[in-house]
Write a structure and sequence with these properties.
Elements (H helix, E strand, L loop, with lengths): L2 H18 L6 H21 L6 H11 L8 E5 L5 H9 L4 E6 L9 H10 L6 E5 L12 E7 L12 H9 L1 E11 L4 H4 L2 H10 L4 E5 L21 E6 L1
Parallel strand pairs: 1-2, 1-4, 2-3, 4-5
Antiparallel strand pairs: 5-7, 6-7
Bound molecules: S-adenosylmethionine.
S-adenosylmethionine (SAM) binds next to helix 4.
């Protein structure tokens, strides 16, 4: 997270610095762009495994909120490079796990990368990756004992209202099965009011559902609680 923004703000900083040599007033935007570039460097450091290890901790939040006994099948929706899928498999040595993703152009992830990562981590015999759309999952109702997802739903589909994506994810959870979904749930444009969202999910026949404001977890630095970083992060967990 932050690499593109880092390059762009750094580049603009140099452009305005150059122009500022002619028009002094342009030194101001140059300073602002360099500051933004430094901020995104800091964000990258916090997320990296050599730095703040935030990415790892964010995946752990999803798994620690999944109250599952590890029996049967689980699904990771929008698995990216397979990291969360693999962790789920490692934590549940008897389970069979499926990771799905559309692997579009926005990310440098692919099915091949996921499979290679699963092989390196020694879980490839119990993990399958499949290209699929989160809006229309190619599985029967109730196919999985557990379903997880991390920072995917807000990207799915053109419609602003993302409740349909949550509903589709819940469709494939078995009755009595568990789920843990982390996303930008505090972004009202996407999910509306949280109490209303939870009530709506209950009205879909979900027996137990709870919202966890994971943005307030103690390891999330205050500087990263901006809306476009982790400021709208939350998690929905429960039992179907
Ligand atoms: C921010 S990344 C998160 C990846 C992974 N869940 C993680 O925590 O590392 C978002 C992922 O959602 C995937 N994605 C976006 N729209 C999707 C869709 N309609 N169906 C399936 N995956 C989708 C992207 O390809 C990308 O891998």
């Amino acid at each position: 997270m932050g690499l593109k923004e880092n390059y762009l703000s750094g580049f603009l900083g140099f452009v305005f610095l150059g122009l500022g040599l002619v028009f002094w007033v342009l030194i101001i935007p140059a300073v602002l762009f360099f500051s933004a570039s430094l901020y995104f460097l800091y964000v990258r450091y916090q997320f990296s495994s050599q730095g703040g290890k935030l990415q790892d901790r964010i995946w752990s939040l999803v798994l620690s909120n999944l109250d599952w006994n590890g029996e049967g099948r689980a699904l990771d929706i929008g698995c990216g490079n397979g990291a969360l899928t693999i962790k789920l498999a490692q934590q549940n040595p008897k389970a069979h796990i499926v990771g799905i993703d559309c692997w579009g152009k926005t990310w440098e992830y692919s099915k091949k990368i996921c499979e290679r990562n699963a092989m390196i981590e020694g879980v490839s015999e119990r993990v399958v990756f499949q290209k699929a759309d989160a809006l229309s999952l190619p599985f029967d109702d109730g196919y999985f004992n557990a379903v997880v997802s991390n920072f995917v739903f807000h990207m799915v589909g053109k419609a602003k209202d993302k409740r349909g994506v949550v509903r589709e994810a819940l469709r494939v959870v078995k009755k009595g099965g568990k789920f843990s979904f982390q996303d930008e749930f505090l972004l009202k444009q996407l999910y509306g009011d949280m109490d209303d969202l939870i009530e709506t999910i209950r009205s879909w026949g979900i027996s137990k559902v709870e919202f966890v404001q994971t943005r307030d977890t103690d390891f999330v630095p205050r500087e990263l609680k901006l809306p476009f970083i982790l400021g709208t992060m939350g998690l929905i967990k429960g039992t179907k």
